[in-house]
Structures are given as structure tokens and as C-alpha cells.
Amino acid sequence: MKSTITRKIATAVTLLSLSAFSGTAQAQCLNAPTYGQYPSNTFIPTCAGTTASIATDCYAGEYSVVNVTSGVSYTFSSSINTDYLTIGDETGTTAFTSSVTPLVWTATVSGNVRFYTHTNATCGTQNTSRARRVQCTSSVPLPGCTTNTYPANGATGINLNPSPTFSWNPSPGASGYRFYIGGTAATATAIGIVSTPYITVLGAAPNTTYFWYVVPFNASGNATGCISSATSFTTGTVTNDDCAGAIAVSTVSGVQTADANYATQSLAGCVGTTANDVWYKVTTDFPGNFTISALAGGTGNAVLQVFSGTCGSLTSLQCVNAAGAGAIETYTVTGAAANATYYFRLYEFAGLKTTYNFVVSGSALPVTMDKLQGKVTDRGLAQLSWKTHSEQKNKGFEIQRSADGIDFRTVGFVHSKAPQGSSLEVLNYSFTDAELVTGAAYYRLVQTDIDGATEMSNTVRLSLKGMGGSEVVAIPNPVKDKVSIRINGERGASAMVQITDLSGKVVRQLQISANETQVDMSSVANGIYLLKYTDANHTQTMKITKQ
């Protein structure tokens, strides 16, 4: 059940009002900017013909993740009979179907999908409780058991840092897998459910033998007899429990996972209590600066201590614990010489045993974000996507739209997926604007930190029409003095603009050598003119008005 605190926060958020679009086209609402996913777990329906409630306190403007099997017919419904439903893929970028409740869909994929609820076809939101329900009947065959691939049967010395990723051969017809592990095959318990043929497991004990197997499932139920496919492996020691065992990472490490669940204290803590630490070392490739950023798992409070020197003769450069619980700790080594080795250790302030994500890089930004990308769907809606490689106290992303690329207005907000706004993982985001794209539309993001600081993304231009991916616009129109001719897209060779009155008389003509050119219209009489753009590949004519 949603907490009272969650409800108070949700009520305080201004509901997004998205303008309706003209005609009879229907939206496919893949946006949940205010409420996101609810509940947090994946719902696996029992396809026995009865209707099951995912939850009864759901909101409009959020989604649930549901596991489905290809070829099985599902009926999705809401307890509010005017709600608008959309079924999308697991990442929220492609819509499979949508309609007013109930929605009947024969699954075309096996795995997880998103089940969105909105108040109407313009993706309206509402913080009033409603039940989100699924009903299905399955006659598809049960999937078969599969074969483990990593760790290999009988393998020893399996590394615990980073935590091992278990893998197996996909089972035809499976929509998901239950992962079992334990001291024996008979005592193994299910610790995870995934839709992919792999899973990363944290917290394995050192020098311990484990047995594991997976049970594929689909809408008809679980594969049977899969305990017979169990294999075993033995973990290695915690090699980086002290300076001498420090694991080498590069100055462009990418996100690394550190498991300190079985670490012990090798050196007294610089702050906090018992320093159950894990150690790493960085050897520089060239002179300059590098940054270490670390985040403890859950609500853990990470301590990052950085050293120069050698094991047995270390000099502490910095003990970092400024950001606090659930936040990223960062330290930059400046003026490092080439081929110099630096050590750092991670531990939890209160002595808790946990995991960490960390990155070693040439620079550290509050939010490291890829370029915004977009496309127009076959229903004429703008679908945006972007991802972040790291986030530090990020509130989220304001989505802005413009008709001319100059004057922007806000059309939505997507909250950060990172716990407490901080993450060192790659996080994928998407947003679908409910307003139709007519002509051209420009979009950009305003990334907003919890403290109010902002950063602008690149701008993308989307269009239903164009000339091989290019379009010419005249700004302003009507024009009083000067009109700016802007080419959005590729400018071909021998580009030229000709402006004529309605009788065909040429009043302006010029070669175009840049993607934006101003034309002086101050001495031209008021009236309507035809502006014709031509180049080696394109021709476009438009009306402009002189006032």
C-alpha cells in the first residue's frame, strides 16, 4: 500500500495538463512523469481465467510492470470505467496497443510490459485510487528446463568483486526465469525473477560452495523438474580486503561494483566506526587530473579515502564523507604524474556491510547525460528518449517544446529514477508528448537538481514533413524589417533564395552559404510574397507577409 507520506507528496505536485489533439486520432500514453511505476515489483498473472488485481490504490498517470507470454490473450482493466489504458514495452519506448478500459490484447512478445493507466486519451493524471487488473487464460505449452552456462559446473575461485553474473541458455517459450541458489540443490531458494537469461547476484560468501538452477515459466506455469539441472561452484576469497590485494581499475573505469558484505577492517577508519573496507588502485596513463565517485547501496553512507604512496607507506590525501547517506562521495586527484599509482578504499560510515558502485573518470559532473533523441510516431506524437550515465542529487527533467526553436514552453516533467536522485548506473528515460506534431516541433530538456541548479540539453527538431530530412523556415513571419531564412537539416549545393510578389516580380534573390541567413525586407512594400528555396536536392516554396 502507498504510504501517507507518498500520497501527501503526490497531492502537492501540480498535475500535468496536456492539451487534447484534434481529429479522431488516439494517443498511446507512454508517459508517467508524476507517479512512475507502482507497485515496484513485477506482476506475474496466473492465467486461470480469473481476474487478478495488481493493486487497488493505483493512480492515473502511472504504470505497473506485468509479465506476459506471446500468443496469450490478456484483458487489462481499471476499476474506473472511463480510464484510458496503454500497453508498452519494458522500457516505455514502444506502444503495443491502447484503448478505454477494458483492453484486450494478444501478446506479441514474451517478457515484461508496462501497463499504463490515464484518465483519458490525452494522458491525463489523477491521484485518486483505482484498481489495476489483469485476466488471462493460457493454453501455450510449458517451457522446458535450461542449461547453466556461467559459472561452469564445479568451477572454483569465482571472483566476488565484481559480483558474479550468472547466465544460462534461453528456454523457448519462456517469459521469465526464477533463480534458485543455496548450500545444496534441495535447500536452494528463489532469490530473484528476471525476464532475461542472466542475473547478477550480490552478497555471496567467500570460500563457499553453492548450488544453483533456474526455473523457466510462462503464462501456463513453471517448467517442471528443473532441480535436476542444478550445478555447483565455489567462490574465491575477498582478495581486496587490504591494500596489498587492491584491485586495479583504469582512469576510464565505467561503473564498477564493489561487494563489501564480507570485508573486514584493515586500517582504522578516518571517520565513522568500524571500517569494513575494500581496496582499489589507479595507475595514471598520462599527467593530469582524475576523479573518483562512489555510492553505497541502499541508504548506506559511503566513506571514500584516497592515498598516495605504496602499501605499508601510504599518505592519506583525503577522507571524504561530505555528501551523507544515499549520496555520491567524490574526490578529484589534481596534478597527477604519468604512471603514478594511487590507492583508495571504500567503507560504510556506521560499519554496515554493503555494496558500492564507483566510477573513476577524467571529470565529475552532477549529471552526465547523453544527447536527447526523438522521433515522431505513426500517430503523429513526439517520442523522446535519453539516458544518464551518472546522477548526483537530480530532481528530474523538465520537457520543453517550441514551434520555432526560440520560444519554448513546458509540456511535462520526468522525475529522476535514481534513489535520492543519485546513481552511478546507466538510467534510460523516455517521454511521449500528447500534443500532435503539426509541421515542425522543437524539444529540449532542462535537467534540474534538488537544490534548484539547472542544465540545458541539446535541442532536437521533429517534423512530419520535410525535404529528405530538411525544411526551410522563415522567422519572423509576418516580417517588418529583416526575415531570417533558416535551414533545418542538410543544405545542398547551389542553395538559393528567391522572393517574388504575387505577379512573379523578383524583389530579392541571393545565394545561401550558411544554414541561417537574414534578408532585408525594410524597403519592400507591404503585402504577401512567395519565398522559394532551391538547392541541388530540394525545393520548397512558402508564403511570407510583409507588414
Automatic annotation (TrEMBL):
Q: Is Membrane tagged as a keyword?
A: no
Entry keywords, A to Z: Signal
UniProt cross-references to Gene3D superfamilies, sorted A to Z: 2.60.120.380, Immunoglobulins
Signal sequence range = 1-27
Q: Which InterPro entries match?
A: GBD_T9SS_assoc, Ig-like_fold, Secre_tail
Residues annotated as domain Secretion system C-terminal sorting: 476-544
Q: Where is the T9SS-like galactose binding domain?
A: 239-358
- Descriptive protein name: Putative secreted protein (Por secretion system target)
Originating organism: Taibaiella chishuiensis
